[in-house]
Amino acid sequence: MSEEVSIVPGWLTPDPLWVSSGGGSMDNITVGTFPPAAILPPQPPRELLVNPWDIVLCTSGTLIACENALVVLVIWQNPALRAPMFLLIGSLALADLLAGVGLVLHFAFAYLLRSDSAQLLTVGLVVASFSASVFSLLAITIDRYLSLYYALTYNSERTAAFTYAMLVLLWGVSLCLGLLPITGVNCLGQEATCSVVWPLTKNNVAVLSVSFLLLFGLMLQLYVQICKIVMRHAHQIALQHHFLAATPHYVTTRKGVSTLAIILGTFAACWMPFTVYSLVADYTYPPLYTYATLVPATYNSVINPVIYAFRNQEIQKALWMICCGCVPASMAQRARTPSDV
Q1: What is the spatial distance between Cα 134 and Cα 130, in angstroms, rounded to a whole number?
Q2: What integer pLDDT is reported at residue 334 of this predicted model?
Q3: Of 123, 166, 129, 156, which is closest to residue 9 (Cα–Cα)?
Q4: Could you report the per-residue pLDDT of 18-65, keeping only the tens digit for each?
Q5: What per-residue confidence (pLDDT) applies to 173?
Q6: CA–CA separation, 300 and 63 (whole Å)
C-alpha cells in the first residue's frame, strides 16, 4: 500500500479546500500549505518536502542575523559608541538579530523537530523581535526629534536616563507580546480563530497590525515636526548670513533627516502590505498572498543596518579598525555630532 507524503509544519494552517476535497486529513497534516506532490513506496526513507517560500524566509533570516550581529558586535566592543543614538541603533540591531535567528530556528524546528511547542517558542521569538524592531525605530525617531528640539541640553544626563527608560519600556512590551502565543493566546485548539500566520489568532494579529499603524502614524508626525524645525533653523541662518551656512552641524542634521525619510519610506513599503493584508484576511486565504506580503516585511530588517549603521561615520571607523586595524584619513578627521545618524 502506498503512503502519502505529508508536508511538515510551516507558517500557515492547512488549505481547507484541499482537506475537504479528500486530499488529506487534519490528523495527517497539521500546518502544511500544499498537497502532497508525489506518492512514494513505503520501503525507502520518506522524502522531505520543503516549501520554497519557507526557504526564502530562512535565507532572509540568515542574512538578517549576520548583518545585525556585526552591528551589535561593533557597538558592544567600542566604548566610544555609547551616546543615546548609538544605544538605540544597537537596540534596533539586536532586535533584528533575534528576528533573524527566530526565522532560522522556526524553519529548523518546523521541518526537523515537528513540535508545536517548539514552533510556539520560535513564533513568540519572532513576534517579540519584530515588535522590538518597530519600537526601536520609534525610539530613534523620538531621539532624533529631541536632539533638534532640545539641541543645547541634548547631551545631558536626563537624555541618557530617558533613553534607558525607552529601552526598558520597548523591550518589556515586546517581551509581553512575544509571550502571548506561548501562554495560550494561539489557535492550536480552535482552527477557526487562526490568522494568516499560524498559530497566532486573528485578534492577536489585528492588535499587532493596528498598533503598527498607530506607531507609524506617530513616527510620521514626528518626522514632519523634525522637518519644520530644520527648515526654521535654515531660514534663520539664511536671514542672518544671507545664505544657508553649510556648517558641520546642519550638514549632519540634514543627513540625519534624509536618512530618517529613507527609513520611514522603506519601513512603510516593507510592512504596510502585510499589515493591511493581516487585517482583512484569515487562514482560509491562499497561502501565496501571505508569503508574498510576509517576505518583504522581513526585508526591512535586512535594510535597517545598511541605512542606520553602515552609513554612520563612527560605525564605519570601528569597522575599519576591526577589519584592517586602521582608519582612513578622511574618516579620522571627521568629528561625531549628535545629529549624525
Answers
A1: 6
A2: 54
A3: 123
A4: 444 444 444 443 333 444 434 444 444 444 588 888 899 999 999 999
A5: 95
A6: 12
Angle between helix axes 52-77 and 287-304 (nearest 10 degrees) is: 20
Q: What is the rounded distance in angstroms from the CA atom of residue 272 to the CA atom of residue 179?
A: 24
- Distance separating alpha carbons of residues 283 and 17, to the nearest angstrom: 11
Residues 313, 330: Cα–Cα separation, whole Å: 10
- pTM tops 0.90, yes or no: no
The set of residues, in sequence order, having a beta carbon less than 8 Å from that of 292 and lying 6+ positions away, is: none
Tell me the C-alpha to C-alpha distance, in Å, between residue 297 and each of 9, 10, 128, 303: 21, 17, 15, 11
Identify which has the larger pLDDT, 236 or 3: 236
Please give the pLDDT value at position 325.
61
In this structure, what C-alpha cell is assigned to residue 154? Answer: 541634548
24 vs 7, 17, 31, 288, CA distance in Å? 10, 10, 12, 19
Beta bridge partners of 39: 4
- Residues 160-202: tens digit of each pLDDT: 889 999 999 999 999 999 998 888 778 777 878 888 888 888 8
Q: Is the pLDDT of residue 206 over 80?
A: yes
**Which of 236, 87, 271, 57 has the alpha carbon at shortest distance from 162?**
87
65 φ, ψ (degrees, to nearest 5): -65, -45
DSSP assignment of 297-314 equals HHHHHHHHIIIIITT-HH
Element (H, E) at 40: strand 39-40
Pairing of strands 39-40, 3-4: antiparallel
DSSP sequence for 185-197: -SSSS-GGGB-SS
Residues in the chain: 341
Q: Is 64 exposed, middle or buried (0-12, 13-18, 19+ CB in 10 A)?
A: buried
For the beta carbon of residue 229, count every other beta carbon within 10 angstroms.
15
> Hey, how many other C-beta atoms are within 10 angstroms of the C-beta on 296?
16
**How many DSSP H helices and E strands does the chain contain?**
10, 2
